[in-house]
Amino acid sequence: MKTRTLKLSLLGTLLAFALPAQALELNIGYQKSALNLASLKAQGTLEKQLKPLGVEVKWFEFQAGPPLLEAMNAGSVSIGMTGDSPPVFAQAAGADIVYIGQEPAKPESSAILVPANSAIKTLADLKGKRIAFTKGSSAHYLTVAALQHAKLAYTDITPVYLSPSEARAAFERGSVDAWTIWDPYYAAAQKAGGVRVLSTGKGLTGNNTFYLAQRAYAKANPKVIDVVFKALSANDDWLKSDAKKVAATLSGYTGLEAETYEAMLSRNPSYSVSYLQPGVDAQQQKVADAFFSLGLIPKAIKVKDAFWKP
């Protein structure tokens, strides 16, 4: 009996050595606004850099941040990039995700748009109007901040919760009075014409961009995250090099028009990535507190509880 047990044990050991080690997956969630990530995807940069570490890279595109973080919480996405509001809603809902890094603030990359011939001239004129935006997105917070600035209550408007593509369709057929949106949808709408910028985020919100991860993935794979961040920061040098050339190259990768990318680059010249910077927790706490005070998230949260340090 002992001999048989020894043989089985030896066989198991040999099989373990014979089977190839399973590759670690890095599932990246990105949006069209994630210029730096989309660029790395098109070039295959991360695949080349992470292959020697036994990491397999997979990409998943989302229209907005909230569904991206839902997929992350479900375990389908390892890391991803969103605006300021999606992680607040996710944390309040109990998602086990963490902030791992950030890009420079870009308040002018989002805007509240109205039809070119609209009678709406000031933020105060939004009273009683129907405003389209994606619930739980950075556009949601820009709308809230704009109303606060105009001394209007959230109940003074009718929010129309739509995805970016649905919101554009509603805006173009006149079903809503205004549309709060971010790049590249903002730039694409400007290029199409017939719109006027009522306000950008300047003076209203920092419009911070965050990189997030499953908490367990971040804890287990800090080296992978470091490779990703270094690749993104190195790629930012290329994004800054020649706006027209970069826009044309990106257009070839993605199919979006080069003029859209030129507008994005002019509004936000830096897409460099860093680990979380001092003071960003206070900015993000302001976003969370605003949503809680309006009853838009179910509980008060301390955003710093979801901050990860490598």
TrEMBL record:
SUPFAM superfamilies: Periplasmic binding protein-like II
Entries under InterPro entries matching the protein: ABC_SsuA_sub-bd, Solute-binding_3/MltF_N
Domain Solute-binding protein family 3/N-terminal: 25-242
Keyword Signal: yes
Keyword field contains Coiled coil: no
SMART domains: PBPb
Signal peptide location: 1-23
Swiss-Prot/TrEMBL keywords: Signal
Domain of life, per lineage: Bacteria
PANTHER family noted in UniProt: ALIPHATIC SULFONATES-BINDING PROTEIN-RELATED (PTHR30024)
Family stated for the protein in its record: Belongs to the bacterial solute-binding protein SsuA/TauA family.
Full protein name: Sulfonate ABC transporter substrate-binding protein
